[in-house]
Amino acid sequence: MSDQPDRPDEHALDRMGLDAFDAVAVPDQWDDITRRADGAELGSSSSASSRRSPATWFMAAAAVALVAVAAVAVSVRSGNDSAPTPATTPDATMPPPDTTVSLPVVSPTEPPESTIADDLVELSDWTGMPAGLAIEDLQAVGLRFQLVEVVDETAGHDVVLGWSVLGDVDAAPGSLVPTGSVVELTVAVSPETAAPPPDTVPDNVPDMVDGEVVAAWNPDCVERTSGAATLGSIDQALTQFTTVGAEPTLDLGVPTIETRNGSESPLLSPVVVPGGVALTLYGQSLDGTDAITVEVVDLDGAVRWRRCLEGVGWPRALVPAGRQLWLAAGDGEALLLPFDLSTGADFSPPFSTGDRTIDGILGDRVLVGVPWDAGVIDADSRLGVIDLDGFTATDIPYPDVAIGTPSDRVRYELIEGDGALLVAATPIDGSLPETVWTGEAWSSDPDDLRSLPPTLRIPYGEDSVLELLDGAGDVVWSEPGFHHISREGFASAVSGSVALVMECLTWTDGAGCQWLDENTPPDEQLVAFDLETGERLWSRPGGQAFAALDGNRGIVTADVGWELIDLRTGERVDDVAVAAWPQDDIFFNECCGAGDYIWTRLDGGVLFEATGDRLRVWLPPEASTPTITTDAFS
Prior knowledge:
InterPro entries: Quinoprotein_ADH-like_sf (IPR011047). Helix content is 7%, strand content 34%. The chain has 634 residues and is mainly beta. It has three domains: 12-22 and 453-631, Thrombin, subunit H (Beta Barrel), CATH 2.40.10; 46-187, no CATH class; 209-232 and 255-449, no CATH class. The strands form eleven sheets. A five-stranded mixed beta sheet has the order 37-38-39-8-40, with no helix packed on it.
């Protein structure tokens, strides 16, 4: 469900069903260019194992120097020349850093044939954290890397890791391709003697203020982490909407932030996670710095963990994927900041967005592309789809409609198709996708475009034809003589097999759908259409609004409060424990700028309600408890 957008000059088109897609397999990483890494297109026909790059020798020398400096530093601190020299690696059983440049594969059970790396590869210990040379060292010599395989990651010993070396850090986004072969490493690390892992916050992310407190908030944002080691799954009842309880389970007070305009409420973005809810709180401090708080609140009201960030830009989305919670942020170059869902600890992502910006998010998949201020798109430019759960990425060439144009002239959208992840490309001055990525190539064939969701064409002004268009732009059905409302608020939506549209019954040429006088509002009604045939199913008199829409059910305004109805019949649902809410002070969706702070949104089977100074969390009746009132910064 969405509020009425700003009215266009002629027609408004509401895309339908694009927020429900979240489970599509992505093709293998960088397939279309991995093949070039093995052949003459890289300018050499020699194999990876037969070459030595300057970075390799430079890094080997740097590693030796690091070892020497570390040994001297420890000796000086000890003040005792006779004291034994401590180990210079996180664990004495690991090879010293100067031997990691060319490390053969060693199996804990049977020695396989040796494989030599042609570029420096970072080691990781049994916790998955860096051990030995750090990420910063790899980046310093222009290398990127990606985790390919982890075997027996919880055993605490003999962990086999596969890494793939990627392109130069300063190269264009299109060159983010494997340049070296995958190298398997065996690392034996004792959990009892392993050194603490180094800081894994990416270098391009500004440090947190004092690492603990951001004082722009009122009260201060104070970081806290959790020692929890286990993570369950989301309760099945919370994944699919049926109804919600008679009262919210959580009622969280949110802090304010001190801005140039005084004390203001933050922008909130919540999402369901195993055992609780995660949320971001965003605002700009007195000096204009972006301040973001990320925290997880358990369903019993306890704050599991909280992270306080400054200077990472605008929060685009909060995405739970596997054992991580990802913050997608940034005003230009994309930042993907992962935290451990159980503890809130930093997690070092095994890939880079490559100076690209976020163009779209669908479930746990992120579409990245050339930043809008990067000039024109050329044939070597690339979009990329990153799977945050599977740690894979896929490069996609730009469509022909974008080649030679500025990077902001085409909009892109991730869409779940029938067995493939689709990308729709719509020119900025158009209203319908012009081409679609089918998983193999861009296509403007009408049959391929029809795999995209249909579009509801809403009439405005003298235009009085309501139409449903398929993905290719062909009319599926139309309703002549239909006049739309002329106000903010709920206007139209599609859910399940029904299209819902507000209709003005007292339209007049010249005045449109306006109040006749200060005491006489226009006559309106909500109309439900069969999505396939365009048949009118039912109508509901008066101005209406929805708090939740999912499938063929929705929570709609009633004579008193709200009620749950069957969208096929318009009648109240009678097969759930709670189907009516008599409260008249809940489930608001404000318009205009106020709608950024006061809204009601559905995530699976959980309804989030933001009131400006509070966030209420409504669960299904079978999972609800008496309301727990607390503060997000408790």
